[in-house]
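This entry is listed below:
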Amino acid sequence: MNTDEYCIMQLKQSNSSLYYNILSLEKKQKNILAAIYLFSKKIEHIVSKSKNSIAAYAQLSWWRYQITEIMNTNNIINHPIIAVLKELIIIYPKVQKIIINFIDNNEILIEQTQFDNFDELNKLYWQSDRLIHKIYQEMNNTEYQYTKSDIEISTAIMMTKIIRNIGKDARVGRFYIPISELKTFNIEVKDFLNPDKSTLMLKLITNQIEKTYQLYKKIPAILLSPKIDQHKFYISTASVYYELLEELNKKKQLILNQYITLTPFRKFWISWASKKTNGRNILRKLYGLHNYNK
């Protein structure tokens, strides 16, 4: 098994929606995005699972060194993910800095487990989807400028994952819903897993779901862009997470204690339909626009 096959196999086994989103891409891009996803998950795992901050810093330093020295001919590459990323950086040198920034931002999260507001959260909390989107845009259009709608949809995807993981994160001492939002409901982090505060927590979760719905409504601004082809991959990702948000809304009483996800077939179907219809499938859900012909 070569390095590309390894990355694709690992991505498929992860049950990530990315696997279905990249099926229609050409082989090289597919392999690269699979490697980026696996890399990002390794970094996130180091931060979220490590109970020893010294060990976490050391592990992140190892990955940072591998990326920094990736073009050094004397550096021996013995990790399949790094091997694929080297091919990427050879073609797109700017990607090296993007990847290092991702490591740096995650390193901050070793010590910082809360955020004051959404501005701070957006600035520091880099999830895998944001990294993947940045790399995808770099591979397809190096001059791409992010719009306000791009940023808001990126925030919607991030918030969908934060809402889904709120109970799991709280159990390891991480609280990603901003403090400013908690204060609105007189909630403290100690209340997240307190059964006596379940009614308040449900109100908070309902409020965050409603706010996230509003962020997804920025999607039409992207679909009406003259450069719609550049957005198909991103809209496909957003469509899957919008469907997940709907599932979370239906099962919000379970969020604190269960990990809610979509079936592999459902992820595949949503991704396929989004690309096939240029995002009309999500517009129908957002606005009931059955005759949208863009």
In short: Residues 289-294 have pLDDT under 50 and may be disordered. The chain has two domains: 1-113, 145-294. Residues 1-113 form one domain. The CA atoms of residues 5 and 15 lie 16 Å apart.
